[in-house]
Design brief:
With 109 residues, this protein is α+β, with helices and mostly antiparallel strands. It has a domain at 34-101. Helix content is 40%, strand content 23%. It has five helices and five strands. The chain has helices spanning 22-27, 47-56, 62-67, 73-77, 85-101, and strands at residues 7-14, 37-43, 68-71, 81-82, 105-108. The chain is globular, with a radius of gyration of 14 Å.
């Protein structure tokens, strides 16, 4: 049996009040008001496990910890899995930019 690690990209919905954070607002000058605010990340864990770590561990994003709503299941489930971390991180950046172009307010590392 293989212990091959797979990597996933996930999306977390954030409260619109995150737009009051200067660095977040500056990253998203073209945000469309009715589009969600989201965090995009990648992980070797399940998206649910990583979301839990954001909320309960030191390794989590402070923006997610403070402004989280929920894992955005629809967008998360649409993402492929990757065999390497660099592939997942490249897709994370691509997805973040794609969502930003569609009017979402996005934070990604």
């Amino acid at each position: 049996m293989s212990n091959k690690i797979s990597y996933r990209v996930y999306v977390i919905r954030l409260k619109t009040s995150v737009l009051e954070v200067g660095k977040f607002a500056r990253k998203n000058p073209d945000h469309i008001a009715y589009k969600p605010c989201v965090y995009v990340g990648s992980t070797a864990l399940t998206p649910e496990q990583r979301f839990d770590r954001h909320l309960n561990a030191k390794s989590g994003s402070k923006l997610v910890k403070r402004y989280h709503i929920s894992l955005h299941k629809r967008l998360t489930l649409r993402q492929p899995t990757f065999s390497t971390r660099p592939e997942a991180e490249a897709h994370e950046r691509l997805l973040a930019e794609r969502l930003r172009r569609r009017g979402y307010a996005v934070w990604s590392c």
